[in-house]
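Structure tokens please, single chain.
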Amino acid sequence: MASLKSLFKDTAIYGMSSIVGRFLNYLLVPMYTNVIAASSGGYGIITNIYSYVALLFVILTYGMETTFFRFMNKEGEDARTVYRTILTMVGCTSTLFVALVFLFINPITSWMGYADHPSYVWTMAIVIALDAFQAIPFAYLRYKKRPIKFAALKLLFIAMNIALNLLFFLVLYDPEIGAGYAFYINLACTSTITFFFWKELKEGFRLGKKTFDAEGVAVKSCWIDKALVCRMLSYSWPILVLGIAGILNQTADKILFRNIYTGADADVQLGIYGAAVKIAMIMAMITQAFRYAYEPFVFAGAKDKNSKEMYSKAMSYFIVFTLIAFLMVVGYMDILKYVIGKDYWEGLRVVPIVMAAEIMMGITFNLSFWYKLTDSTLWGAVLSGISCAVLLAVNIIFVPEYGYMACAWGGVAGYGTNMILSYLVGQKKYPVNYHLPSIFVYVVAAAVGFYVINFINGLDLALIIRLLLNTVVIAVFALGMLKVMGFKLVRR
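Here you go.
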């Protein structure tokens, strides 16, 4: 139980940086969606380019975050050598990526459809490279149990980003630059944060003391351990495939939309969808905060004889709290919709669908640790590849006719497939006694609450009355679920 308390404490701190930070970032969405009219398609461009950014980030980190935790906690491995080697690897590949982008900038921008704005592409290429490199010292902070500095740097980035966005979009705005401000500001903020890692980088690149072989001859220290690189790449390449498949589940619809949607207003429709999804990202904040704390928690506690029971309890807690968040978003949609401009409100119908997909993704993340703990990461790549294929098929087949609604349901189809397959295979390879009957009760109760809230929202009542009734529904669900969980824990 002490381990679970530590998990909750770290989740709260990481969650503060993630949830509060993203909430503050939400303050930018009304600005973007009011300054940049939906009809201009500018927000669609932002949505499209940041989807490429998410995909390329996964490629440039190539599973090294998870590999870092695995090898830092692995017997027989020197932690300092592991850290230094991963820093060097990711730093070199990120630098190479930026060089290639500048070398082939013209064909790249033409292929992406931004030949008139090459600065969008090279600016974000540098941002991606810096983000990928920073991922390793951020992981090091998590490994060293320094959540305060982790959260402080995340919030500093957010504060700088908000301040500069407010300055340039509200005071110094030039329509000729338009969406480009978002990219240039991101570069300035990301570059600044890099300097705050001087201590972690110094620790990482510091060579160890001289060692001697059996004959007393000094063994030369080096920046990178080639044998270790081979072992880590053998472990990480399936995670890379898994990561690519996973991020495509989140971004493929936004990347492909401009090419497969048959209407003439692809950027406009993509902007509406991208803005509405921002509201649903409340669920992504919760899953990300949980992930930051859960990953080092799982690897560090893998040898605990009670670890499987803790994983089962953590799964139940995760599902209950995400379902509470789901009902809160639906119940207070009449307030949350003001996060985006009125031009974008027609996209609000996708919010519950996208949130359901995000919950499935979080459950899949919880289910996925069996293959990471057993070094069977190839299974993760296979399962995510299958789910990605399902998502792509739904998008390619249905987006031309149904537009962004097909994007939302494609996420449910893809994550749902991955969730089911991860559970079925995981129970054979690394069985964990998840409390399925209780989880079923939680989901059914949430579904009832969802339909009751939708019924209330459809009544011809004053806004304050609807919100009060929805609050009662949410409170009844939350208290009921927490009572059930508390009773189970006492009974055990």
